[in-house]
Amino acid sequence: MPWIATFSALGGLLLLGLGGELLVRGAVGLAKRLGLSNLLIALTVVAFATSMPELVVTIAAALSNRPDLGLGNIVGSNIANSLLIVGAAALIVALPTSAGISRRDAPALAGVTLLFLLLAFFTAPLAWPQGLLLLALLGVYLVACYRQERRRPTGEAVAEVEELSEESPGRLDASLGLTLLGGACLALGAELLIDGSVRLARAAGVSDAAIGLTLVAFGTSLPELATAMTAALRRHADVVLGNVVGSNLFNLLAIGGVLCLPAAVPIAAEFRRFDFWVLAGATLLLVLLLRRHRPIGRLVGLFLIVAYAGFVWAQFHDGAGLAAVVP
Fold first, then answer.
1. CA 313-314-320 angle, 5° bins
2. For the chain, which has fewer Cβ within 10 Å, the N-terminal or C-terminal residue?
3. Which pTM value belongs to this model?
4. Residue 38: is its pLDDT beyond 60?
5. How far is it, in rounded angstroms, from Cα 182 to Cα 178?
6. How far apart are CA 218 and CA 232, in angstroms?
7. Rounded to whole angstroms, how far apart are CA atoms 182 and 238?
């Protein structure tokens, strides 16, 4: 029944949001109790924890033989991060770009996105060699970031970790409990979201890819959205852009790599026809905004949100011919 699928999908979204929040708080508290530095936490724990919903959903989609759902989740999450999350945060506070993001992270995001698209267009179906390449590049990027950031260990990202640490449990057992509870919520939420989304896709006559690009991608981006809104309200604008860029890189390299390991991932025609081009355009726009050395203001934020709304509309509008119909 459609209403059961709707409740399943909505319940999955809520559990993903709750699980992501609990996992971030618990993981940061656990890392602090284990003596890890703010720098290491900022580079690994927070970045990975906020992207755990995408990872869990993608793994579940791959294991359930739904590669379009997993690939749509990766592509749609990056589009949502670049357009919706940056746009929503810019409506709250102007987002100044930092030299570190514009010099290192923006070119890295552009290069990784280009590589991912080239692999998808010219080496499909994606399989374990491409997956290992993406995971290896993630390791290279993290090592490069750590070595560079170790020379300048202060900044807003570290300040944000300190605030997260203050809001996290002080006891080791409480931190461990929150981490485990968050992981359980993520696993259950992913299962409910995928089951409900597939049922809704069949009932509505749209493809797994379209659902993955929109509903699933939005749901798994809730932790990034919550982090961005909190950072914007606290006037930590650098954290917003750092979280978006880091999440996009993690989605393409880590989650994209993991997706390719269990089995070959065919690339549906609709991705080649429309969605990959939107990903390329959204990433290019974000990189240009980061490189122009001017704050991202409300007018640009509004444009980004409207652009994202247009992307979602195109996925389901019959006349657009962009979302493949399920036979």
1. 130
2. C
3. 0.78
4. no
5. 6
6. 19
7. 26
Percent of the chain with pLDDT over 70: 71
Range among 83-92, 141-150, 216-225 rated most confident = 83-92
| Residue among 221, 165, 213, 170 nearest 16 (CA) | 221
Strands (E), the chain: none
| Contact of 188 with 20, CB cutoff 8 Å | no
Q: Cα–Cα distance between 272 and 119 in angstroms, integer? A: 12
Cα–Cα distances in angstroms (integers) from residue 311 to residues 99, 189, 215, 278, 317, in the given order:
30, 25, 12, 8, 10
Cα→Cα distances 66→152, 163, 258, 259, Å: 43, 39, 14, 10
Q: Tell me, what amino acid is at 29? A: G
Mind giving me the DSSP string for 23-68? HHHHHHHHHHHTT--HHHIIIIIHHHHHTHHHHHHHHHHHHTT-HH
Q: How far does Cα 179 stand from its chain's mean position?
A: 19
